[in-house]
Design a protein that fits this description.
Layout lengths: L20 E13 L7 E7 L8 E6 L7 H10 L14 H5 L3 E10 L5 E10 L6 E5 L1
Antiparallel strand pairs: 1-2, 1-4, 2-3, 4-5, 5-6
């Protein structure tokens, strides 16, 4: 016999909504490897302040050697653990990122399929003052 769950009834309105808000503080809840794309991270965030408090936001961060490496370095900088090329080749990314807080601007982007998707622009935090900057990474 298969795995049975009680799923209840779901309406289309319950689908994940894109959040549009600037300066959102989120906690990194989970970091995992994407099952389809090698060296790609799936990140789960929980919004910890504001109107969308306790809502979950998801992001996919590509291999630091990929053309999208800017996103990996931006996430690391926002979490207060900037990436350095002098680091070991293999690191425990969960230990490094889970439970860290980041600040980001959340917006909407349209996919090639016409669907609406969450866009996350991580914001650097100045180490010396611990204040967020307006610089988008």
């Amino acid at each position: 016999m298969g795995l049975l769950i009680k799923q209840g009834k779901h309406e289309e309105e319950q689908a994940i909504k894109v959040i549009e808000e600037n300066g959102v503080t989120m906690q990194i809840m989970k970091v995992g490897l994407n099952s389809r794309t090698p060296n790609t991270l799936d990140i789960t965030f929980k919004i910890i302040k504001g109107a969308n408090k306790n809502k979950l936001v998801f992001d996919r961060v590509f291999d630091p050697n990929d053309t999208f490496a800017w996103k990996y370095t931006a996430l690391r900088a926002a979490a207060g653990v900037p990436y350095s090329k002098t680091e070991k080749d293999s690191i425990d990314i969960e230990a490094l990122l889970v439970n860290k807080a980041v600040v980001a601007d959340l917006s909407k982007t349209l996919g090639k399929d016409g669907g609406e998707y969450q866009r996350i622009s991580y914001k650097k935090v100045k180490a010396e003052s611990k204040e967020e900057t307006a610089e988008e990474t």
